Amino acid sequence: MAFSDGPAATAAALTEISPVPVRNLGAVSPVPGTCLRINASGNITSASATPTVVIGFYLGAQGSIGSAAVLAATPALPISASAASWPWIMDWEGEVRAIGQAGSVLGQGQCAWGGNSGLAAAMSVFPFPVTAAARTVAVNFITTVQLLIGATLSSTTGSPSITCNHVSMEISG
């Protein structure tokens, strides 16, 4: 979908880190049962073990992530004080349950997280969304939207920075 790294998130606020250019998904015309698969990856750096980060997939307009719909988000992931461009990989899969303006998607995924273990140990795997209620999401399939990647750091202690290097989406069914 994109071919350049997204901007790094360094603030303790929801920040768009989508690789660029962000592609317009067009008015997706799925049918119930259509499968959506999303993969994203990047790296995290920090000099303090104090902050955590939530990474998520959002549907909305580029530059307006604060008003975008949350498709799925990880739990708060711990960041190591020695994280130096350590990797993260997120995979999410959802099934369209309803279409139209009041559409919905049921999905879940996992995040392989190197931000607290680095390269010396196996990556930790965190499922997301954590609650069953958060796995069904309202989606307006009538409007044109963009797939956005967002990150929310809990604090700026240790100058944490998270970047997304890759995102892809597959629609099948």
Poorly predicted regions: none
**SSE class:** mainly beta
Q: What is the tally of beta strands?
A: 11
Mean pLDDT: 89
Number of helices: 0
Tell me roughly what share of residues is in helical segments: under 10%
Could you say how many structural domains there are in total? 1
Summarize the main sheet: 6 strands, antiparallel
Gross geometry = globular
Radius of gyration: 16 Å
Ends distance: 20 Å
- Helix-strand pattern: EEEEEEEEEEE
Strand composition percent: over 45%
Report on the structure:
This protein starts with 13 loop residues before the first strand and ends with a strand. The strands form 2 sheets. Strands 2, 6, 7, 8, 9 and 11 form a 6-stranded antiparallel sheet that branches. The chain has one domain. By secondary structure, the protein is an all-beta fold. Helix content is 0%, strand content 48%. It has no helices and 11 strands.
